[in-house]
C-alpha cells in the first residue's frame, strides 16, 4: 500500500472505511429496525460504489498523455464526481419514497440505544476521513478526493440526524420521529446529489474558473513589461489537477522571431511560478498596430505614430474578451 501514489492511498482508505462502516450500519439496522438507520445504511452503500469508482478514476487520471488523450486523463475525475452525485441523487429519491411510506405506516423500533452508539461511532469516523480527503484533495488539486470527502461529510450528517431521531424515539416513545428524520434525510441527500452533478458538469463543460483566471490576470498585471502591449482572449481549462492556459499577447511588430520567443517564454515562466500544479501554456503573439501607440509605453520605439496617453489595466473583464482592449481587431 505504501508504494502506491499518495492520492491512490487516500482513495483506497476511503474505500476500506466505507466498506467497514456500511457493515456496521446494517448491523445497527438489524438491531433496531429503524427506518432512519436503514436510510443511512442505504446511502452508505453509495459510498462503497463511489469510492471504488473514485479509486479507479484517480488511477486513470495519473496515467501519462498518449496519442488518444493528448491533454491527459484528468477529466475522468469530474466524471467520477458526476457518477457519485448521480448515485446519491437516485438513492435520495428512493429514500424519500420509503421514508414517506414509513411515515404513513409506522412500526415499533427495537433497541434504539444500541443504534445510537453504533451510528455515532460511524459518524465520527466519516467526519475524520472526510476532512482528511477534502484537505488532501485541495492540496493535490484532485476533484475526485474532494468530492469523495464531501460525500463522507454528507454521510456523517445523515448519520447524526439518524442518531437524533433515535434519541427522540427513546425519550418520547414516538416512532414518528424516526420516519420524519428519514424523510428529511431523503430531501437533504437529493439536494446534495444535485450539487455534485452540477459541479461535475461544470468541470466537463470547461466552465470558467473565475478565481484561477483572476490569479493569472493579477500575475501578468503585476509583472507587466513594456513589450506586452496587450493581453486578450485568455482562457483557462482544468484537466483534473493540470491547467491548460492560452492567450493572445500583442507585441511590437518589428520584434524578431527570437525576441518574440523570449517574451513568450518569460510569460510562460511567470504563470508557471504562480501555480503548484502542472501548467501547459500557449501564447499567441500578435503584431501591434499604430492604433495601439497611445496605450503603449515601449521605450525608444522606432515606429511610434502617437504619443503615449494611458496604460489600460488588465482585469478579468477585458482580458478574457477576444478583442484588443478598446482597439478594433482589424486595425
Automatic annotation (TrEMBL):
Tell me where in this chain the Cation efflux protein transmembrane domain is found: 12-205
Q: Which UniProt keywords apply?
A: Membrane, Transmembrane, Transmembrane helix, Transport
A Gene Ontology molecular function term of the record: cadmium ion transmembrane transporter activity
Protein's membrane topology? Multi-pass membrane protein
- SUPFAM superfamilies to which the protein is assigned, alphabetical: Cation efflux protein cytoplasmic domain-like, Cation efflux protein transmembrane domain-like
Report the record's Gene Ontology biological process terms: intracellular zinc ion homeostasis
The Cation efflux protein cytoplasmic domain extends over 209-288
Localisation per UniProt entry:
Membrane
Q: Which NCBIfam families match?
A: CDF (TIGR01297)
Designated name of the protein: Cation transporter
Q: What is the lineage of its organism?
A: Bacteria, Pseudomonadati, Bacteroidota, Cytophagia, Cytophagales
Amino acid at each position: 500500500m505504501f508504494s502506491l501514489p499518495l492520492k491512490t492511498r487516500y482513495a483506497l482508505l476511503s474505500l476500506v472505511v466505507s466498506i467497514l462502516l456500511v457493515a456496521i450500519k446494517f448491523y445497527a439496522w438489524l438491531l433496531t429496525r429503524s427506518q432512519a438507520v436503514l436510510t443511512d445504511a442505504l446511502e452508505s452503500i453509495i459510498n462503497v460504489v463511489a469510492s471504488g469508482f473514485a479509486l479507479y478514476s484517480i488511477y486513470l487520471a495519473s496515467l501519462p498523455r498518449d496519442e488518444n488523450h493528448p491533454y491527459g486523463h484528468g477529466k475522468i475525475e469530474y466524471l467520477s464526481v458526476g457518477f457519485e452525485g448521480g448515485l446519491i441523487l437516485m438513492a435520495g429519491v428512493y429514500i424519500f419514497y420509503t421514508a414517506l411510506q414509513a411515515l404513513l405506516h409506522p412500526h415499533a423500533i427495537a433497541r434504539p440505544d444500541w443504534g445510537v452508539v453504533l451510528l455515532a461511532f460511524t459518524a465520527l469516523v466519516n467526519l475524520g476521513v472526510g476532512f482528511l480527503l477534502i484537505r488532501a484533495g485541495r492540496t493535490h488539486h484532485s476533484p475526485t478526493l474532494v468530492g469523495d470527502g464531501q460525500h463522507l461529510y454528507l454521510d456523517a450528517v445523515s448519520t447524526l440526524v439518524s442518531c437524533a431521531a433515535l434519541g427522540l424515539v427513546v425519550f418520547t416513545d414516538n416512532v414518528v420521529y424516526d420516519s420524519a428524520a428519514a424523510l428529511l434525510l431523503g430531501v437533504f441527500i437529493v439536494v446534495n446529489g444535485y450539487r455534485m452533478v452540477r459541479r461535475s458538469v461544470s468541470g466537463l463543460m470547461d466552465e470558467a474558473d473565475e478565481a484561477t483566471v483572476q490569479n493569472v490576470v493579477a500575475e501578468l498585471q503585476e509583472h507587466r513589461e513594456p513589450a506586452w502591449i496587450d493581453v486578450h482572449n485568455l482562457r483557462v481549462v482544468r484537466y483534473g489537477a493540470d491547467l491548460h492556459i492560452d492567450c493572445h499577447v500583442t507585441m511590437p511588430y518589428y520584434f524578431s522571431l527570437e525576441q518574440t520567443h523570449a517574451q513568450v517564454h518569460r510569460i510562460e515562466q511567470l504563470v508557471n511560478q504562480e501555480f503548484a500544479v502542472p501548467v501547459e501554456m500557449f501564447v499567441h503573439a500578435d503584431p501591434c498596430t499604430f492604433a495601439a501607440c497611445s496605450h503603449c509605453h515601449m521605450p525608444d520605439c522606432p515606429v511610434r505614430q502617437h504619443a503615449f496617453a494611458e496604460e489600460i489595466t488588465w482585469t478579468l473583464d477585458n482580458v478574457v474578451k477576444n478583442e484588443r482592449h478598446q482597439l478594433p481587431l482589424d486595425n
